[in-house]
Every structure is written in C-alpha cells, then in structure tokens.
Amino acid sequence: MTLRVVVADDQALVRTGFRMIIDARDDLTVVGEASDGGEAVRLTRELEPDVVLMDVRMPGVDGIEATRRIAECGSRARVLVLTTWDVDAHVVAALRAGASGFLLKDMRPGELVDAIRLTARGDALLAPAVLSRVLDRFLRTTPDQAPPPSLLELSGREREVLTLIGQALSNAEIAGRLRVSEATVKNHVTAVLRKLGLRDRVQAVVAAYDHGLVQPRHL
C-alpha cells in the first residue's frame, strides 16, 4: 500500500525537497502541497492523506492551529510536525493540538521517510533530542484538573499500561516490565485508546501526564 502525504510549508524550496525525498520511495507519494495552514486543512479534507508534514511557522493559520483543525474534523490523517526550532513550547502545543509526531528539519532524508512510515502506523514519534524535555514540560504546564470519567473505566492493568506508555516505553518494554506477551500489551493499548477516545499512542502520553499518572524525570 502506498502512503499518501500532504506537505505543508510556506517555502516552495522546502516543499520541493520533501517531495523529491518522498516520491523517490516506492511506498510513499506526495498527493498535495500547501503553503499555509488553512490550505493544509483544506487539502487534508479533500485528499484524505495518511500523513501531513506540517511546518510550525506559516503565515495566516500556523501549523499548530492547522493541526488542531485537522484533529477536530475527524480526519484519519496523522500530522507530523516539522520545525527548525528546538523549542519545548512548540512541541507541547503541537502534541496537545493532536500531532502524532515531531521532528526537526535538520534530519536526514532516511529519518524523514522512517518518520512518515512510523507516524502512519500510529507509533509514537518524537525527536530524541527533545523527548525528555517535552515530557517534563507537560507536567509543568498542565493545570490541576479532575480525571475524566473515562479514566475511571480503565481496569487496573490498563491504567498501569497507560502509565508505562507515558514513560515512553515500547510495547516490548512494557511486556517485559509486566511479564506478559506483547500481544497482551497490544490488546491493552487498544483498549486504553478506545476507552479514552484517543487518536494514537502519542495522545496517550499526553493523557498520562495530564492525569498525573506520570511524574517528570527532571525538575
């Protein structure tokens, strides 16, 4: 199956570069290009891509607001946010808006391709250089709030799995920690996402921090 990609960036040369990298792969194709966030939202609705590469800083509707609109409209597309700025606030805002991944623009071509494939599968994706600081930032910027009723619907094991997801553990690592099979962990993850109404694993990380299931690594 060929993964369909929309590229949103206000610089034509950047869009062209991404298109060349993506279209060179047999399993990827660029189906549309947008020069601002508003156009990215429109193309996502019209073209139904699997992944949207979204620049953060664009004129008019920026990448954060465009990501929010895409998530709210119920699109199946997963948004992979790209920026030249290694800034925690942008990462937090993008993930809260519904982004499924975050990468810096200085990545290698192969890293971009791998990121698109991972994001399309629903796997968690964050640039390693910013991951730990992003997780810390969540708790510091999250207001106190009562847990939603949906959180109470989780079983004890499902809450445990959600906590471990929030600690950025993979299914294999969670399986090892809980001494169960990966298949069992996968079933628990699916149940957690369904019960909490979450789009993907990244949003589960957000939920784990928002509801106080995970404490920051660094203060």
UniProtKB/TrEMBL annotation:
Domain Response regulatory: 4-120
Alphabetized PROSITE patterns for the sequence: HTH_LUXR_2 (PS50043), RESPONSE_REGULATORY (PS50110)
UniProt record, GO biological process: phosphorelay signal transduction system; regulation of DNA-templated transcription
Name this protein carries in UniProt: Response regulator transcription factor
Pfam families: GerE (PF00196), Response_reg (PF00072)
Record domain HTH luxR-type: where: 147-212
Alphabetized CDD domains for the sequence: LuxR_C_like, REC_NarL-like
Chain positions with 4-aspartylphosphate modification: 55
UniProt keywords, alphabetically: DNA-binding, Phosphoprotein, Transcription, Transcription regulation
One Gene Ontology molecular-function label: DNA binding
Xref: InterPro entries: CheY-like_superfamily, NreC/VraR/RcsB-like_REC, Sig_transdc_resp-reg_C-effctor, Sig_transdc_resp-reg_receiver, Tscrpt_reg_LuxR_C, WalR-like
